[in-house]
Amino acid sequence: MAVPLTPSRFGSSFSGPQQQYGGNTVSMADTLPSIDFGFNDLRERMSQFTARFDEFIERGRKRVLEERNAFRMNVAEVEESQRNRQRDISTLEDKSSAHAQTLSREAAETEEMRSAITSLTEQREDHMARRDALKEQIASVQSQIKQRREAQAAYQRSLDAQARHNIPELRFWEHCLGLKIEGTGVEDVLKFVYVCVDEEDPERECWFELSMGGKDYEVADTQPRLEREDVEEMQARMNDSRDLGGFLKGMRSLFSEAVKA
């Protein structure tokens, strides 16, 4: 604040000389111009500057606080984003691991399927080869069956022709010897039945079964029972000579002796 210089302020300093030189003498201080330094304006400007500076500081402090809060929020968001990214990375790693396991399992299954396909292909080729071989065997067997059927038919025709000649002979045997030939239900075994052996009971039947399936003929059973040695002797003669007529006559004689005994 400017303080004007007035005569009263300097009066005490020059009072002595004034009194010395007389009361009507004019002081030099009174002749000096008054100086205004503008302290009031300076104080006003300083006050305005202080207010503006305080306002600037307050705005700066608020801005710093806002920026700090914004920074903290940004840091929190970044940390949250980082955690989310970490979770996403962990999830993707789990998915990648599961995908790798799936690929490995599918690769193993694919290899297993390829192995199975190869095995099935080999089996198919083997079955086809066996099928072709079986077809050839079937064709061969069918040809053999055809030949055997033709041979069997020819043999049957021969048997039929022979049967026409055998019927009179069988009737002769039945009439002259009282002999019947019957089947037993067993393959290659015939039953020879005699009647008129027992004079007391002409209808009584005496029979024996002859097995003709082997190289030699064999008497399997007799009724009534005959001596085994006698039967074996007759059997041996017939196998040596192949004289069936003599064998039948001999067996009738054995039955006749057995009935009389």
TrEMBL record:
<comment type="similarity">
    <text>Belongs to the SPC25 family.</text>
</comment>
<feature type="coiled-coil region">
    <location>
        <begin position="117"/>
        <end position="151"/>
    </location>
</feature>
<protein>
    <recommendedName>
        <fullName>Kinetochore protein SPC25</fullName>
    </recommendedName>
</protein>
<dbReference type="GO" id="GO:0051301">
    <property type="term" value="P:cell division"/>
</dbReference>
<feature type="compositionally biased region" description="Basic and acidic residues">
    <location>
        <begin position="80"/>
        <end position="97"/>
    </location>
</feature>
<dbReference type="InterPro" id="IPR013255">
    <property type="entry name" value="Spc25_C"/>
</dbReference>
<dbReference type="InterPro" id="IPR045143">
    <property type="entry name" value="Spc25"/>
</dbReference>
<keyword id="KW-0498">Mitosis</keyword>
<keyword id="KW-0132">Cell division</keyword>
<comment type="function">
    <text>Acts as a component of the essential kinetochore-associated NDC80 complex, which is required for chromosome segregation and spindle checkpoint activity.</text>
</comment>
<keyword id="KW-0995">Kinetochore</keyword>
<feature type="region of interest" description="Disordered">
    <location>
        <begin position="1"/>
        <end position="27"/>
    </location>
</feature>
<keyword id="KW-0539">Nucleus</keyword>
<keyword id="KW-0175">Coiled coil</keyword>
<dbReference type="GO" id="GO:0031262">
    <property type="term" value="C:Ndc80 complex"/>
</dbReference>
<dbReference type="Pfam" id="PF08234">
    <property type="entry name" value="Spindle_Spc25"/>
</dbReference>
<feature type="region of interest" description="Disordered">
    <location>
        <begin position="78"/>
        <end position="112"/>
    </location>
</feature>
<feature type="domain" description="Chromosome segregation protein Spc25 C-terminal">
    <location>
        <begin position="186"/>
        <end position="255"/>
    </location>
</feature>
<keyword id="KW-0137">Centromere</keyword>
<comment type="subunit">
    <text>Component of the NDC80 complex.</text>
</comment>
<keyword id="KW-0158">Chromosome</keyword>
<feature type="compositionally biased region" description="Polar residues">
    <location>
        <begin position="9"/>
        <end position="27"/>
    </location>
</feature>
<dbReference type="GO" id="GO:0005634">
    <property type="term" value="C:nucleus"/>
</dbReference>
<dbReference type="GO" id="GO:0007059">
    <property type="term" value="P:chromosome segregation"/>
</dbReference>
<keyword id="KW-0131">Cell cycle</keyword>
